C-alpha cells in the first residue's frame, strides 16, 4: 500500500479506500517531490492548522439579483445532504472528506494559491457515484464559515448537477469557452443554500475537449477565483475512462478526488485512470457505496443519543 499504510488510519471513506488499493509506484514516479498520495493526504510541510483556506481580507463580489431555490425534497429523494437537517452518517463522512481536502489545500497554497482552490471529482467508469459525491462535497464545504463554493458541471455529455438540485439549466461553461463575449459571472447560479453556487455545463458541443484544452479555460478559472478569494471550485467531470475532459481538467486541479465504487471498481481501471489524471499531482480515492457490517463503525447515531445517566 502507499506511504500512509504503516500508520493506523482512522477509517474515513478516503482512508478506507487507501487500504484497498496500492498506487505507491505510479504516484512516486511522477515527481521528485515527496510522494503524492492516492489516499488520505499527509502534510508535506509543517502543518498550519490555524491558517484559513482563503485570505482573511477580500473584496465582496456584487451579489446576483436572482437566487435559485434548491428543491430540498429532491435532495432527500436523491440521497443527498440536506442543509439544516439533523446530522447523520453521511454528513459526518463528508465532514471528514472535506477536512482532508481543506488541510491539503492549505499546504498547496504555499506553492500555487490558485490551484489550491480547485478540486476535480471524477471516477474511472460511469455509475460509480461521482456526481453524487461532488454534490455532497459541495454542500458540505459550503457549510464552512469562510468558503464560497461553485460546483461546476463539467460532465458535458451527461450533465446532471442542475437536475439533481431541481434547478433549471442555462448558459454554462461550454458557452463561455466558445464565446469570449459572455461574462462567466452571468452564468453562475447562486442558490438559496448559503455560500453555494453552481455553474451549468452549457450548450453541448462536439468540440468540448478542445474548448476545455484551450488557454481560455485557465483564464476563466482565474477570473472566477479572482472575483472572490473565498471561492473554491469543485468540478464534476465525466468518467476518466469514458470521456477525455477529465484528463484535461486534471491539469487545472490542485486536488483530484477519484470515486471508487465499493465491490465493483477494479484495480486495473483505477490504475489506468490515475495514469490519465497525471496532470494533477494530488489524487485521492473516495470509497462510495460502502456496506457496513452490523456493529461496525458508523457515524451519525451519536447526535441522536441522550447521555446515559
From TrEMBL:
InterPro entries, per the entry: Bact_polysacc_biosynth/exp, P-loop_NTPase, Wzc-like_C
CDD domains in UniProt: BY-kinase (cd05387)
Domain of life: Bacteria
Alphabetically ordered keywords of this record: ATP-binding, Nucleotide-binding
Protein name: Exopolysaccharide biosynthesis protein
The species this protein was found in: Sphingomonas panacis
Amino acid at each position: 500500500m502507499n506511504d500512509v499504510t504503516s500508520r493506523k488510519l482512522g477509517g474515513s471513506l478516503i482512508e478506507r479506500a487507501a487500504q484497498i488499493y496500492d498506487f505507491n509506484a505510479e504516484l512516486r514516479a511522477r515527481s521528485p517531490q515527496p510522494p503524492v498520495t492516492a489516499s488520505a493526504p499527509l502534510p508535506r510541510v509543517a502543518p498550519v492548522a490555524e491558517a484559513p483556506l482563503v485570505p482573511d481580507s477580500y473584496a465582496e463580489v456584487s451579489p446576483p439579483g436572482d437566487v435559485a431555490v434548491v428543491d430540498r425534497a429532491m435532495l432527500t429523494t436523491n440521497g443527498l445532504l440536506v442543509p439544516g437537517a439533523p446530522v447523520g452518517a453521511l454528513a459526518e463522512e463528508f465532514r471528514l472528506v472535506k477536512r482532508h481536502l481543506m488541510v491539503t489545500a492549505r499546504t498547496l497554497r504555499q506553492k500555487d494559491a490558485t490551484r489550491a482552490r480547485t478540486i476535480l471529482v471524477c471516477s474511472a467508469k460511469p455509475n460509480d457515484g461521482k456526481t453524487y459525491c461532488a454534490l455532497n462535497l459541495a454542500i458540505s464545504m459550503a457549510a464552512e464559515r469562510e468558503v464560497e463554493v461553485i460546483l461546476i458541471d463539467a460532465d458535458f455529455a451527461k450533465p446532471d448537477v442542475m437536475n439533481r438540485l431541481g434547478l433549471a439549466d442555462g448558459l454554462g461553461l461550454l458557452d463561455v469557452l466558445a464565446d469570449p463575449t459572455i461574462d462567466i459571472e452571468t452564468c453562475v447560479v447562486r442558490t438559496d443554500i448559503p455560500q453555494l453556487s453552481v455553474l451549468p455545463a452549457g450548450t453541448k458541443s462536439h468540440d468540448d475537449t478542445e474548448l476545455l484544452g484551450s488557454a481560455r479555460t485557465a483564464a476563466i478559472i482565474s477570473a472566477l477565483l479572482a472575483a472572490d478569494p473565498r471561492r473554491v471550485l469543485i468540478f464534476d467531470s465525466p468518467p476518466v475512462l469514458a470521456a477525455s475532459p477529465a484528463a484535461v481538467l486534471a491539469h487545472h486541479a490542485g486536488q483530484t478526488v477519484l470515486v471508487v465504487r465499493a465491490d465493483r471498481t477494479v484495480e486495473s481501471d483505477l490504475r489506468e485512470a490515475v495514469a490519465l489524471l497525471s496532470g494533477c499531482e494530488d489524487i485521492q480515492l473516495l470509497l462510495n457505496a460502502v456496506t457496513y457490517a452490523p456493529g461496525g463503525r458508523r457515524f451519525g447515531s451519536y447526535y441522536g443519543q441522550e447521555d446515559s445517566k
